[in-house]
Structures are given as structure tokens and as C-alpha cells.
Amino acid sequence: MNCRMLTALVVIGMLMKTSISQAAPWDWSGIIGTGQSLSVGEKGRPVLSTNQPYNNLKLSTDDLPWPIDSDNVDLKLIPLTEPIGRLSPGYPSSWPENIAGETPHTAMADEITALVRASTGHDYVTVHSAVGENGQGMIYLKKGATHVGLNGRSYEAAMIETKAIVRLAKAAGKTYGVSAITVTHGETDAGNTNYEAELFKLWTDYNLDIAAITGQSRKIQMIVSQQNSCADHSPSTQAQWKIGVDHPGYLVCSGPKYQYPYADDGIHLLANGYRQLGEKYAQIYFERVVQGKDWQPLYPIHIKRKGTVITIRFHVPVSPLVWDTTFETPHQSVAEWKVGKGFEVTSASDQKVAIQSVEISGSSVVITCATDPGPNALVSYAMVGEKQKMNAPCPGTFRWGLLRDSDPFIGADTKLPQPNYCVAFEIKAP
């Protein structure tokens, strides 16, 4: 082997080592899940993810009652399976007995490890915490939340788990830091017009307080899932995609949840729906945290109106844009929007405007209205509920649309395809 070839191999090795160390700055990467009932899992059905095929972990709290000392010797790290923690005795509940059933966490962890191993050949270990509280708004998830009965422990619980995991990692000779927070939330705050500011404050507080415990300088990625179940024109739904636009970098919306299988109430997911959500979280984590890419959901980036024609240009994760052909057509009970495929147009005087056609044109959707909607017309998508929830191809929720991209991603656990469906949104046409 000549010197030039040896030098090239050394450089390649250094680049590979640098890339891997940037992707996994710690031996164990922490992921904290917060939110309300959809963050703590499906109730009343057997869990599916009962085996950990890799080396991913969770904290076992044994039978310890609240409040738990992070130095308690009964705390230990065990393989990550569902249920991720102790089952809730009823409603309301909170950590350490806050889990209802299958959560997104095990599927998320499995998917991250599978993606990293396929990409680099190296292992990737995540340690998961689930601190959500069923039925509770941001007021109970935030730092300094007032305890009311069992509720208001979420943030404090995340700090207890982080301190315990740091201690256990050191004892095992491993490094540990928190790399991401998933937020599966928004139904209780469906009418909260200050939701985006409160969500950003939650991210800020987590970064400051986690860093003080772990010593990390790396910012925490926050991945936020849209709620599509509660309230028409919901401010929390709007905020959940807007926060990634208004605060790019470490905050991002994973997209909607209307494409997943729902329970009879049209609000909570079935077990496989939580696994699919976890796989989508993992795909975004892999792209943004591991690979350092600026993944964004399918969302509108520009709108223009000329008479009766409204054109919306989209950020498309994987081209081309397509209409989903398996979902029921939305708004069949609303004459003005029956052909809108999930799009809704309302005049400035709050009158429904009839949609004549919607067509995909490259990365844009062209909406032709029967009449000129006028200035400041509101164009929305999947923001107004149906009287009946979607029933095909699976039990669904009350707000949905047909626009999606062509992402070929297939989940490692569910083996189901996961293209990116358009976020629910509303914007004014100039």
C-alpha cells in the first residue's frame, strides 16, 4: 500500500469517525415524551411491542411512590418494551403511574436504531422517558406547574428521570445526554391562542434545566405532532406546524395524525397507530438529529389569489405531490367543499365559498372557486370537522385531507408505508 492510499484511508476513517460522533455524541441518547393521553398510550388493549430487539432502555421505577428520589437504589435501567412504565390506575393520573398502554416510544427507538445501523453499521442506543399526563393542558406540563391532585408533575418527573439516568449511566461507564423531546398534545389546549408561545417556553426551559443536569451543550430537538381531533380552526393545531416555521432549527412539526388508525372516539389512536407515530418520530429524529438535515413536513410556503383562482405552493419532503386514493373523501356533508379534497375556503365575512376544482401542479395546489372569494379569504385544510369521522381505510378522526407526498419510508416494526401527509393549516389569501 502506497503512502497516498494510506493517507486517503486515514482521512476517510477520520471523516467516518467524526460523522458518527456527531450523530451520537453520547453512548446513550435520551428521548423524553410529554403530552396528554396520546403520549401515554392506548388504554384497554394488549400492547404489541413486548420485545426489545436492540439495546434501547427505559427507567424502571419499581413500585416507588411519588415523590421519587433520583438517587433511590431501586431505580434501574431495563430493556425498553411496552408498556414503557407503570400502568395508570385510572383518570386522572401522572408519573410514575401514568401509562395507559402502547406508546410511540418502543417503535420509535427500534426505528432509530434500525436506520442508524443500516446507514453506518454502528449501534445507536436511546433511553426513553414518558412523563405525559392524560387529559391535561400545557398548564400541567410546564415548568413550575401547580400540583392539583395527581397532576402537575410532568416537568418535575422529567428532571427526576434525567438525574437518575445520568447517575446510572456513570455507574455503567456510559455517557448520556438528552437529544430530543416529543410532544403528543394539543387536544385540551385546542382553543388556547397562546399555545405556540407556551410550547416554545417549554422547549426553552427543558434546554436550560436538562443541560444543568447532564452538562450537555447540545440543544434538544423538539418534535411536535399535530392534533386533528378537537375544535374547528384550533389554535393549537395551527401552532403545532407554525412553531417549526417561526423557530426553525430545533423545533419541528412531525405532521398530522389523521392518517393513523383511531379508536372509536376519533381522538385516541389504536396500538398500531401509536407505533406508526413512533416510526414517524424516528424518521424525523434520524434526519434531523443523526444526519443533521433540515427535515420539514409537507406544509404551505406561499399563497396567491387571482380572481377565483388560489394557488398554494408547498414544501414537499419527497416529490411528487399526490392525492391519497384510499381515504374517504372529506366534506361530503358540506356542499361547497365536496370536491375540495380537504381544502376549505371562507370569505372575509365568514361565508363558505364553493370550490369548483382542486388540481396538483408540480409543488403547488391550484384551487378554483365558483365565485371570487375576495380579499383576505381564509384558505384552510383539514381544519373543519365532519359530522362523521373517517371510516376507511381504517377508523379515523373528524378532520382530514387527501394531500400527501411520495416518501417511500416504511416502518421497521409495523412494515407499513409512511408518506408525509399535509399538515392541517389555515392562511389568508392576499
Count of helical stretches? 8
- Main beta sheet: strand number and arrangement? 7 strands, mixed
| Secondary structural class | alpha/beta
- The radius of gyration computed from the alpha-carbon positions, rounded to a whole number of angstroms, is 22 Å
Task: Summarize the structure in words.
The protein is of the alpha/beta class and 430 residues long. The protein is built from eight helices and 16 strands. The chain has a seven-stranded mixed sheet, with helices on both faces. Helix 3 crosses helix 8 and helix 6 (195-214) packs across helix 7 (235-246). The chain is globular.
Q: Topology, please?
A:
Blueprint: H1 3-23, E1 28-35, H2 37-40, E2 57-60, E3 76-79, H3 105-120, E4 125-130, H4 138-141, H5 154-171, E5 176-184, H6 195-214, E6 221-225, H7 235-246, E7 251-255, H8 271-290, E8 299-306, E9 309-315, E10 322-323, E11 343-346, E12 355-361, E13 364-369, E14 377-381, E15 403-404, E16 425-429
Parallel strand pairs: 1-4, 1-5, 2-4, 5-6, 6-7
Antiparallel strand pairs: 2-3, 8-9, 9-13, 10-15, 11-14, 12-13, 14-16
Characteristics of this structure?
16 strands; 430 residues; alpha/beta; 20% strand
Concise description?
The chain is an alpha/beta fold.
